[in-house]
Design goal:
The complex is a heterotrimer. Chain A is mainly alpha-helical. Chain A is 75% helix and 1% strand. In chain A, a hairpin with a 2-residue loop joins strand 1 and strand 2. In chain A, helix 3 packs across helix 4 and helix 7 packs antiparallel against helix 14. Chain B is of the alpha+beta class. Helix content of chain B is 47%, strand content 11%. In chain B, 32% of the residues are buried. Chain C is an all-alpha fold. Chain C is globular, with a radius of gyration of 18 Å. The longest helix of chain C is centred in the first third of the chain and has 30 residues. Chain C has one domain. Chains in contact: A-B, A-C, B-C. The interface between A and B is medium-sized, with 28 and 19 residues.
Chain lengths: 431, 279, 151
């Protein structure tokens, strides 16, 4: 009662000076807070260790190792290679090839089941779903054979880290580094989310305070953060290049973020973040999160991948792909050092990045690309444009000026970074 | 490449064009170790040959040999069949004769029965006896034909001429350690070359006018298949006298012990965490 | 935690830290080549050029965490370092075990592995972190002790 009276009395005197406000706060806290010696618990001490750079960085390295290791074995070894390849290549594809009407030289059959490939001048049926490139074969294989398991693995670990309380600590840990590029440590959350799917990643930029931070974050996510689906396909196709791919993207993320921070007007203020104590995750919560995120992802991905397969197929059939390859081929070859056939995955990438890498896989199987060209193409696929769903969300989240800015950054980045990679390749003698 | 896949309606035209190209490429197959229009080899892992050149350790990769061969026949570098065979034979002999040691270049003596430019350039490069090779020490390399005559003129043209009647018997190499006077004879296994390979080779390379397009295409594909074997197959599949390594019996007992420990450990963990919750 | 327990913990985790550090350094050296196999200890399984040095760095950090925790081991902040080191071992060793589980279920030609093939997937040799795993579990005792005294 006495306190309330005092507050009332003080409030009457509005506006209070800064000193008066502090005095008021002190008075209130003296009467409401009990002070005593607080003994750190083991949990507190562990929490401290995970945010201090000297100890926190090795812990982060171990956590990311666990993350990646689980991802590879769960999605790659167990599901995709262990079961899905068998289901799709040994049962689904041959069954469709035997029952679907039309046969190899039929356009509808080519679009839906198998376009076949030439061997010694003879059109022969494909023996795996990556090469068949039909909507019902490659389309379904990409979504249900590869991507679904990658996404499940990713969101499972993400939910565990989130519920344990490790993610906010990771944010605190990387805060200093991210401040150098004008972002707050919280930016690690949208970045991690984007590693699952760019769509929730872009949505998660909302808590960032200024337009500058949001613009930068969205642009960086759209350019440099590959989604789980794309990572899954890349891991399946070029596992030996994954380290280099991530290193190149990380350098681009930090380097380009630094440049954006310098040229984009606006402020990057501090953001106060709640760091909850460590706790045991509950199975119910994890399950619910996993279901919501995975089903949400599938709703976005399935139609786009199937549609993408159809569009790419139609473009091949109508000759549009030839025309585009002829027009953009010289630019791709001279500036980026990749063959003109890369046009096809780049087109597919407007719809879905995982589909684009899948198309690239088909080209790789034909042996028309060197390892360095594969590497450059994968990087180009990551950075040249966000997938359609992410782009649609960016239109919603940004005003037209920011959107144009993002697109201009994209174009500039693709040419500068893509050209730079080619140049490094030439200097090293691998391009 | 993929364009053709999708232009099903144009498949006939494409097929005709491809067939014509194929026929054209087959027609230009000359009496040459190189195979025009041959597919690139598959991915392979071949460790380099390591030798001591006057005490300095040098590594010779098959790509080095291919480049040297290209310079000798004035063609683009290509790993040809004979070269791949010679390279593998040298590697095998070194591992059999020197084991863990590294042979000195001047301790090597190679006697080959194979008169082809590809194998010649490989052995020239390894022994340092060919032209244009910077070396401090030299080994020995000879070609002694099946009838016992030694080939003194190792020019491209002469070797091509001598290779007309080549058979599997020519693929024999004696690789010797001069210091100990020991030799290792490398003999190819029978199934390495397709049955009709040498007959087809003779027809396509030395009687091209009478060879049909199908024969030329078949020879090209057999040539590629055999070259790929030399690049990717293990020694025991290629050479006589090399034992197939015994497949290790899976350690089921060891695995079962570990698996039991794992199951018990996980069980204990579950019980403990359940108790913790109850408390 | 009494004095005896503290002293034992100190010595035990100093030794474990030294071993982890040695394993880490060995893996780092091995990652430059093709790994090593020594009896049932194996570090060549992770032929991936990315994973071996990554694991090596983690084991080296584990070694340093344990070693830095041994002075005044009973103090909660010191104990936390040893706990963190153990958790890091559980992560890497857990993933090594998970890798075996994932590889043991599907068969090469058939849908599922045979019983023989399944069990053989768990056969030795094992990577260094799997050897460290059982020894790192001792920390659970200290965590429980700390929980009791902390209350």
């Amino acid at each position: 009662m006495r306190l309330r009276a005092q507050v009332k009395k003080e409030v009457v005197k509005v506006p209070l000076s800064v000193d008066e406000r502090w005095d008021l706060i002190e008075n209130i806290s003296k009467q409401t807070v009990e002070f005593g010696a607080y003994k750190h618990t083991l949990k507190d001490a562990i929490a401290e260790l995970t945010v201090k750079p000297l100890t926190g960085i090795p812990v982060a390295i171990a956590v990311i190792y666990g993350f990646w290791s689980f991802f590879c074995d769960f999605a790659g070894t167990l599901f995709t290679d262990g079961f899905m390849v068998k289901i799709f290549d040994e049962h689904w594809l041959p069954w469709l090839q035997s029952v679907f009407p039309g046969g190899l030289r039929n356009s509808f059959y080519a679009l839906m089941v198998d376009a076949g490939h030439l061997e010694e001048g003879i059109l022969v049926a494909s023996d795996n779903c990556f090469e068949a490139f039909g909507v019902l074969t490659s389309g379904l294989f990409i979504v249900f054979g590869v991507v679904l398991w990658a996404i499940l693995a990713f969101y499972l670990i993400f939910a565990i880290l989130e519920d344990i309380g490790y993610l906010p600590r990771l944010a605190v840990l990387v805060d200093t580094v991210l401040h150098k590029i004008g972002l707050h440590g919280y930016a690690i959350v949208p970045t991690f989310l984007s590693l699952g799917c760019n769509v929730p990643g872009v949505t998660a930029t909302r808590p960032l305070e200024t337009r500058k931070q949001r613009f930068m974050m969205m642009t960086l996510l759209a350019i440099f953060v590959p989604c789980g689906a794309q990572i899954g396909i890349m891991q399946d196709l070029v596992p030996e290049l994954m380290g280099w791919i991530f290193l190149t993207l990380a350098i681009g993320y930090l380097g380009f973020g630094f440049i954006l921070n310098k040229i984009v007007p606006g402020k990057s203020p501090e953001l106060i973040m709640d760091v909850p104590p460590y706790q045991m995750p509950t199975l119910r919560n994890i399950g619910r999160k996993l279901w919501i995120r995975t089903s949400g992802f599938l709703l976005v991905a399935v139609p786009f991948v199937l549609l993408g397969c159809l569009i790419v197929g139609l473009m091949y059939l109508t000759g549009a792909m030839d025309w585009l390859a002829a027009v953009f081929g010289p630019l791709l070859m001279v500036w980026f050092g990749v063959p003109s056939e890369t046009v096809a995955p780049l087109i597919a990438g407007f719809l879905r990045k995982d589909l684009a890498v899948g198309v690239l896989g088909g080209l790789m199987a034909q042996g028309i690309m060197t390892t360095f060209q594969v590497f450059t193409s994968v990087i180009l696929l990551c950075i040249y444009f966000p997938c359609l769903a992410t782009f649609a969300l960016m239109i919603k989240e940004e005003n037209w000026k920011e959107l144009l800015g993002s697109l201009a950054s994209l174009v500039a980045m693709v040419f500068v970074y893509g050209g730079l990679i080619h140049l490094v390749g030439i200097i090293l003698g691998v391009a | 490449m993929r364009n053709a896949k999708w232009k099903v309606q144009k498949s006939k035209t494409v097929a005709i064009v491809i067939m014509s190209l194929l026929a054209l490429s087959a027609a230009v197959i000359s009496v040459d170790a190189h195979m025009p229009g041959a597919k690139a080899p598959p991915e392979f892992e071949l460790e380099p040959i390591v030798i001591l050149d006057d005490g300095t350790e040098i590594e010779i990769t098959i790509d080095d040999v291919a480049e040297y061969h290209a310079s000798q026949v004035n063609k683009e570098p290509q790993i040809c069949l004979c070269m791949a065979c010679a390279f593998r034979a040298t590697k095998l002999s070194i591992s059999e004769m020197w084991r863990e040691e590294t042979p000195a270049r001047d301790d090597l003596r190679i006697i080959s029965k194979l008169p082809t430019p590809g194998s010649r350039d490989c052995f020239w490069y390894v022994t340092g006896t060919g032209t244009g090779i910077e070396t401090k020490a030299k080994g020995e390399y000879k070609i002694i034909l099946l009838d016992g005559t030694e080939v003194t003129n190792m020019s491209n043209n002469n070797l091509k001429k001598l290779s007309k009647d080549n058979t599997l018997d020519n693929y024999r190499f004696d690789i010797c350690r001069k210091s100990t006077d020991e030799c290792f004879e490398v003999v190819l296994k029978e199934g390495v070359f397709p049955e009709d390979f040498f007959e087809l080779r003779k027809k396509v390379k030395f009687d091209a006018k009478n060879a049909t397009d199908e024969e030329k295409a078949l020879f090209k594909s057999e040539w590629e298949e055999t070259r790929d074997k030399f690049l990717t197959s293990p020694d025991w599949e290629l050479f006589e006298g090399v034992e197939e390594p015994e497949e290790e019996e899976p350690d089921v007992v060891g695995g079962a012990i570990f698996f039991s420990i794992l199951v018990v450990g996980l069980g204990l963990l579950l019980v403990l965490s359940h108790r913790g919750k109850v408390r | 935690m009494n004095e005896g327990e503290e002293k034992f913990g100190s010595i035990y985790f100093a030794v474990l830290g030294a071993v982890a550090l040695a394993f880490g350094v060995a893996e780092l050296i091995a990652s430059a080549g093709e790994g090593f196999t020594w009896g049932i200890l194996d570090s060549s399984g992770a032929s991936d050029p990315l994973f071996l040095p990554w694991k090596a760095i983690i084991l080296i950090s584990v070694g340093f965490f344990y070693l830095s925790s041994v002075k005044d081991f009973g103090e909660v902040h010191q104990l936390a370092k040893a706990v963190m080191a153990s958790i890091m071992i559980w992560i890497v060793a857990g993933m090594a075990i998970w890798s075996r589980i994932a590889g043991s279920i599907p068969g090469e030609e058939t849908w599922f592995n045979s019983l023989e093939g399944f069990l053989a997937s768990y056969a030795p040799p094992y990577c260094p972190e799997m050897f460290l795993l059982p020894f790192s579990l001792v920390i659970v005792y200290y965590v429980l002790k700390e929980g009791e005294t902390g209350k």
